Amino acid sequence: MNPNGSRQLALAMLLAMSLPAFAWEGAEWGDLAEARTIEVLTHDEDGDLRETTIWVVVVDGAAYINTNATTWGENVERTPRLDVRQAGSTRRFEIRFLEEEDERHRLQQAFRAKYGFQDKLLGLFMDESKATIMELVDPQSGTRREAR
Fold first, then answer.
1. Which of 89, 43, 38, 27 lies closest to 66, judged by CA?
2. Which of 12, 18, 40, 147 has its CA 20 to 30 A from that of 51?
3. Contact, 72 vs 98, CB < 8 A?
4. pTM of the full predicted structure?
């Protein structure tokens, strides 16, 4: 199996072991913090909708997601926003890409703490130093968190 096929298989197995997505309740991060997975909606370069189930962590009152060389991640890099859909509701978020190494490391540790063995296993197939870590920013709030 090629490396990309191995990564995709490992990711599919890990997501299959995750619990169902959170119950959407507006702007509060509480349910999101407890969620094992969320569904994000992005658009491929040709405009097709891409629905992807991913992991999420909430740290210090902000929600973060990450990816490593995926199509949905490329979609967000091209257009830094995405939709989160849950229980018939969809909510749009802008994306802030984390560049600061200390902040990235802190959040990688948060993913490791939340997802444990699954995150370690996935780390065998992906270079964590190349992960794209993103903050979900509510465009309604008009505020962005500053890098730590």
1. 38
2. 147
3. no
4. 0.75
| One-letter amino acid for residue 144 of the chain | R
Q: Are 115 and 51 in contact (CB under 8 A)?
A: no
SS3 content of the chain, % helix, strand, coil (to 5): 35, 30, 35
Which of the following CATH numbers is that of domain 3-137: 3.40.50.2000, 3.40.718.10, 2.30.110.10, 3.30.1360.120?
A: 2.30.110.10
Domains of the chain, by residue range, sit at 3-137
Distance CA 43, CA 75 (A): 6
